[in-house]
């Protein structure tokens, strides 16, 4: 195979991937949107997270459930020379169903208020507590790994086809 043919194949593959991603977001946007609003970005561990979200439908949607969630992800970065590999996994999820399944009419706009309990990251039974964090820090220094917890609040309409969703990163104050 000539090098010019390989370049053409690579360029075509990149264009196809970009077109698929753009198509997904255009299809999602054409169905409607959710806009999440949180009054603060930092919350006390074990405290209350209050917020609102507005859902607007552009087309009639068959919703399975409408919910908000606090989601915790452990993000690990491993360095080996000039290479960094990042992995993440969900370690915490607390959902509150706002509405069970129903049909949402085209052109419908509605605001929803919610309250969620922030995870108690200081509790020894919750996420390993401070002792676990101290041990993890020691292992990170020895292994060239960096681990952190990232927290998000997400509002989502689980719908037939493509979901409507919005999320916002939050920070938890440990209070220690």
User: Uncertain regions: pLDDT < 50 for 5+ in a row?
Assistant: none
* Alpha-carbon distance between the two ends: 63 Å
Number of strands: 8
Biggest beta sheet attributes: 5 strands, mixed
CATH architecture: Sandwich
Structural class given helices, strands, pairing? alpha+beta
Q: What's the arrangement of strands in the largest beta sheet? A: 2-8-7-4-5
Q: The CATH topology is what? A: Immunoglobulin-like
Strand percentage lies at over 45%
The arrangement of helices and strands along the chain is HEEEEEEHEE
CATH C-level category: Mainly Beta
Q: What does the average pLDDT come to?
A: 83
Assembly state: single chain
Number of domains: 1
Brief overview:
The chain has a single domain, classed as Immunoglobulin-like, CATH 2.60.40.640. Helix content is 25%, strand content 54%. The protein has helices at residues 3-31, 129-143, and strands at 32-37, 42-44, 48-57, 61-80, 83-104, 109-117, 145-159, 164-173.
